[in-house]
Amino acid sequence: MLEQRKSDHIRINLDQDVTSSLTTGLERYRFVHQAVPELDLAQVDTATALLGKTLRAPLLISSMTGGTERAQEINRRLARAAQLHGMAMGVGSQRAALLHPELADTFRVRDIAPDILLLANLGAVQLNYGFDVEHCREAVEMIGADALILHLNPLQEAVQPEGNVNFSGLLGKIEAICRTLGVPVIAKEVGWGISEQAARQLASAGVAAIDVAGGGGTSWSEVEKHRATTPAQRRIAGRFRAWGLPTAESLLMARRGAPNLPIIASGGLRDGIDAAKCIALGASAAGIARRFLRAAAISAEAAAEAAAETVAELRIAMFAAGAGNISALQQTPLLKD
Ligand SMILES: Cc1cc2nc3c(=O)[nH]c(=O)nc-3n(C[C@H](O)[C@H](O)[C@H](O)COP(=O)(O)O)c2cc1C
Question: Could you write out the three-class secondary structure of 71-104?
Fold first, then answer.
């Protein structure tokens, strides 16, 4: 069933329009164009550090997949692109591989991406359904990850037929994992955003970073709408298309709630210009799922090209905004409509 769900997810994301009816809010922000940037484009430095590792650009291929042959191919294409361009990458939820170890290879990419910041992934709610720190450790070791993402997806679980909906008492369990795992834990939503309150709670639980995964891009209630097994489930899921905190708003909220943590901005980011805006709004890095999934579904070359273009867009945005490096970009004020 888990394998079926994974192939459904890829197929639905590629074949259907599952975008949120929200926008990210980033369209309301603009850089002040600098006609006299006093920079050499070739010297613009996009390098940064995240969780102790150097990234050649502050970009992350967001957690997506694993568990099937197709997913393995996609993961390997994404990993090759990440290695080529010095980006970070997450794999999809590894629950299936913890339950069925023969699937572990579909998540493994270290052989082709030895240097990247690589992020393991599990649903935080699994901590209420039998998973503990040993499962978390196994997920990290399975792929040679540098850190573990615990994703928080209450709404997705609530609108899916087989959802795990007991989210009570999770914070204490997340705190225990942060204390005992031995690698950094990143808390991440899946497309509805992290509020100021949630950021404060997660910071006090000891997470090392927060990925807001806000609204305006892939909507998981829309994805689940296409997997519904009854008309009522389909109608209920469809009602949530406009739910969530737009990414720009969530980023600012998470910064207020967790001012001392690195915040990763993701959810509906289309390109390197959106990524640059997020960095200027206070993010340490920016994550993109959908664009890279579409490219990796075509070929390894298309995935590498999408990564190269995203970095080029970011670099040119920095150049035209007069920001020669990432800390200058973080200090660059944006105009708001
Ligand atoms: C096919 C697919 C599978 C995904 N699976 C996971 C997952 O297993 N774990 C997770 O944390 N997020 C998962 N996500 C969510 C993404 O990481 C991301 O937060 C979300 O899609 C919003 O980004 P986007 O608008 O750029 O697509 C998945 C996204 C896609 C498109």
Answer: HHHHHHHHHHHHHHHCCEEECCCCHHHHHCHHHH
Distances in Å between the Cα of 187 and the Cα atoms of 126, 135, 167, 193, 211 are 14, 17, 14, 11, 6
- Whole-structure pTM value: 0.98
CA 163 to chain centroid, in Å, comes to 21
Q: Is the pLDDT of residue 189 over 80?
A: yes
Rounded Cα–Cα distance for residues 264 and 271 (Å) = 15
- Angle (CA) 153-294-213 rounded to 5° is 25
Q: What is the C-alpha to C-alpha distance for residues 136 and 120, in angstroms, rounded to an integer?
A: 9
Cα 119 to Cα 147: distance, rounded to the nearest angstrom? 5
* CA triple 105-76-185, angle to 5 deg: 70
Q: Is 215 exposed, middle or buried (0-12, 13-18, 19+ CB in 10 A)?
A: buried
Q: Could you tell me the two tokens for 238?
A: 């469809």
What would the pLDDT profile of 229-271 be if each residue is shown by its tens digit?
Answer: 999 999 999 999 999 999 999 999 999 999 999 999 999 999 9
Q: Minimal CA–CA distance to 241: which of 224, 223, 219, 226? A: 219
Q: How far apart are CA 245 and CA 266, in angstroms?
A: 12
Q: Is 77 in the pocket of ligand 1 (CB under 6 A)?
A: no
Under DSSP, the state recorded for 296 is: H
Nearest CA to ligand 1 atom 7: 92
Ligand 1 atom, smallest distance to 213 CA: 19
Nearest Cα residue to atom 22 of ligand 1: 267
Distance 194 CA to ligand 1 centre (A): 15
